[in-house]
Amino acid sequence: MSAILADAMATYRAMREEFELYRHAVYVRAHEELRGELLNARGRAEAVDPYSLFMGPTSRAEHFASEELREWWALNDRPTVEEYEAQWWAGRGGILTM
Questions:
Q1: What is the pTM of this model?
Q2: 39: β partners
Q3: CA angle 25, 31, 34 (to 5 degrees)
Q4: Which phi and psi (to 5°) does residue 39 adopt?
Q5: Structure confidence at residue 93 (pLDDT)
Q6: Count of alpha carbons within 13 Å of 63, Cβ hemisphere only?
Q7: What's the first-to-final CA gap in the chain, in angstroms?
Q8: Tens of pLDDT along 34-88?
Q9: 54 burial via Cβ count (<10 Å: 0-12, 13-18, 19+)
Q10: Distance (Å, whole) CA 8 – CA 26
Q11: Helices 67-76/3-33 angle, 10° precision
């Protein structure tokens, strides 16, 4: 494997590890502030893991999220890896140049 590719993969892994810590912190905060009221009736009936609402497609998250959680996301945002990666890379000064 080339040194460039190995460095890129290591950088991506580091970003993903930091993102997972961030996502978990956001989940814990939402859980505490909403006193665990994260699922709507459909989510409870289907035994959806509330943590799973903080990953994957937004449409699925909104389908199973409680009204309180949807309002919480409107004020606090629902983290996506794409948004986090862009902010993480910009914070590192990682602007690609030719």
A1: 0.83
A2: 65
A3: 135
A4: -105, 150
A5: 53
A6: 9
A7: 23
A8: 999 999 999 999 999 999 999 989 999 999 999 999 999 999 989 888 888 998 8
A9: buried
A10: 27
A11: 130
